[in-house]
Amino acid sequence: MFFDGPCVDTTRCWLDIPDILEQNRSNPKNLVNVYRRVLHEYSEFTAFHLSIKSCEISNDLSQIIATTSDGGRRDHRLHIAVDFDETKDIFRPLELHLPEQFSKDIPPNSSSLTEIYNKFYAAIEDLQPFFDVLDELDQNCCLLDPESPTRRDCHRRVWLDHNLSLMVVVDPMNVRARPELKFLGPERLVQEYYQKWSEKLGDWDENVDLLQGLLNFLEIDKFPVKPANSREVLMDLGECSICFSLRLEDKLPEVVCPNKSCDNCYHVSCLYEWLTSVNSKRIFNQIHGQCPNCEKGISCSLPDASDAP
To answer: According to the per-residue pLDDT averaged within each range, which of 45-49, 87-91, 129-133, 234-238 is highest?
Structure first.
């Protein structure tokens, strides 16, 4: 059970202390001082931070969840655990839905809830343009991946056409910079788009928002409209013809057979295992062999090289 905040009923918390001690009697440490510290920190924390929308503490005082809103009315949750084995820095962030570059700035352990929260809130303030850009992509594109985006995700995989999609990686430090693009689909289509992209690299206008910049590059007025049944899009993308599933370890198929009469889709890891099992040729970070379906030439990157979007 959690107590709702931000105004904490510390009296009720103290009344629960005997039950908590009974639950932890197998622990030889005297935790009374730790409980006192947690309650004091929590009481001060919720009393003086007006930006907190809600705050909860578990009945055993082991977890704290604070929620705040940003300028775009987006909610952000900070989940903190209490480490009873620590003597000083007892507070440890568990969930930080922030890009990796910003998560590193949050102390892994601290003696102060306020220190963790202030770093978290400052990161949210700095990331407002980043959140705005990704929200615009989510609202105007047919999103394939991530299936359930979080504020830590810097990439979006957007559906363009049958068996063709675009991976967009946004720099959270500079959202107006030219994004990293990766086209996924049949090689004949992918190469065509990469050729266009290489020709327009120098034309990227940082004064234009990212969505419009992508539309200008693709030479379209808007991204394809998402059908009423999103499953149709995913089926159109194609399930992996080796494992017969759409998602494997939360990843969609990324490799499409270049043979136009085949166009079968494969997860990188599935195709890699298949190709290595039939003694295909490895050249640098690519493995080349025959498509499991049509036996025409096909290649894929090594699984480790494809983990990052």
So the answer is: 129-133
